[in-house]
Amino acid sequence: MALEWASITMLVLIAVVVIYISSVYLFSPEYDAREPPVLPHMIPYIGHILGLIRYGQHYFSILSAENKSLPIFTLQTASKRTYIVASASLVTACERNQKALSFFPFISAMTPRIFGIPTKGRAMEIIKHNIDGNDGNWGLVNETSKGMHSEMAPGSNLDHMNRSMLSIMATYFDELAREGGLDVDLFAWIRPRFTIASTEAIYGPGNPFKVEPGLESAFWDFDQDLTMMILGVAPRILARKGYAGRRRIQQAMIRYFGRGDHKNGLGVIKVRHDVARKYGATTSEIALFEIGDLLGVLVNAQPTFFWTLIHMYSDPALLGDIRDEILASGALKVQMSEDGRRRHTIDITTLEETCPLIVSAYREVLRLRTLSSSHRWVMEDTLLNNQYLLKKDSVLLIPGALIHADPVWGPNAKEYNPRRFLKKETNTKPGAYRAWGGGQTLCPGRFFATTEIVSAVAMVVLRFDMEPADGKGWKMPETDTTKVASSICPPKGDVKVRITEREECKGDQWGFAFAEFLNRCS
Ligand code: HEM
Predict the structure, then answer these.
(1) 386 located within any domain
(2) Residue 339 — very low, low, confident or very high, per pLDDT cuts 50/70/90?
(3) For residue 395, how far is the Cα from the chain centroid?
(4) N or C end of the chain: which has fewer CB within 10 A?
(5) Which atom, in ligand 1's list, is nearest to the CA of 152?
(6) Whole-angstrom Cα distance, residue 486 to residue 220?
(7) Are residues 26 and 144 in the same domain?
């Protein structure tokens, strides 16, 4: 009997191998000579997919390093061609071709899995309505995107957001000012506080993350399980916590909108709500759509704040220069408060302009740590840059990490150089900086993120000393690259640090100053 089973298994195995090999030869795609060079894999069709599963976004860097001269290459992934853009020189050409190289098919494909809604249901109909903008600049996706960009562009609405976020962060930093210092797990300390402060800047005083205990961990459960939910492999079993988290967020958002709290929220939430309502979405659907906003608001800013602090504190010369720069800039004012204590106020309206080193160091964190790809679907045969033929119904990826390793960044592109962006010419490399994506998927939160992070970092570095709590010196933590929604990934594990108020400002008060018309306050 055992022998019989062995021979059946062997026969099945042989059959699978024969079918696989025949299909490789029978259905091998034919490539046009003008298509980007194809990088073969010893396991046809699925070899590159296995590589991606194993190495994540790093897989593109591995392939690119092995094929240095290629500005763009083709991977056969199952039955699809995937074109990988590896050179900054081609990025602008991709972004210029917005109709032919479109992000929208990915929204249609991914949204049902991210939101857990039927592919052909009502909610998807609302989302897909004129999604490509072919009939004009209207529809849920178009108008929401336009509204978010406008609400978060420099101006009074953004000032309100910054004021809300940073006023709360300032009170959290007060917690760290303890006699004798405080030991904390740095990322674990940052995460809940950044979550409350940034969501308050969107949702206003009725912020569900403040009023509903446990909502924050529900969101991180969802974020943790998102890969499984998107892959759709038995998600109800393998992503149980993510499902429950998503449901919990939806219910909290239903209550938020039900109370009418969005009317006291910031412009960006009003736009999101009003546009969705205009296109017939129910409160329950609008609540679910908020999950997309939350991913944008929460997943990248906190790790960026964490890594910026780690890079600065682990380099005493850089830390010293940044402190000197802020002190010399005039962005820090010191006055006596009524109770006789000194009060330090960081003016966020001049900080970024007058302190190029802190901004450069922050931008370099983003350059070095960006790990996301911009996705585009090839809608029609397209000749990119008059040179490379991209075939209809293929996928085109622009991996940020690859573009950030382009030779335009110089021979030390893989190193952290906090002074890189001090040089004027570094800031004028077309297509080379992908920290915010670009074109159709340009991050609308980039100004908000920059001000919240740079200002919060400025307050921490001026006010506190920080060192690893074990006294053994700084060791760069590893990165958790499993987060599918993140462009800047969090640390794997955490770093326990000892935070101590600096001798020269012990016991002093600290705050931020905001734009003039909001009444200077802190
Ligand atoms: C350091 C912080 C941040 C980083 C590094 C970052 C990065 C990115 C990147 C790379 C993309 C484009 C992805 C692609 O090309 O497919 C993106 C898109 C987006 N980001 Fe950000 N982001 C940050 C903060 C924020 C904040 C604070 C918000 C909201 C308040 C936000 C909202 C969004 C949204 C809504 C999109 C989607 C845009 C679209 O597809 O139309 N982001 N972000």
Answers:
(1) no
(2) confident
(3) 21
(4) N
(5) 30
(6) 12
(7) no
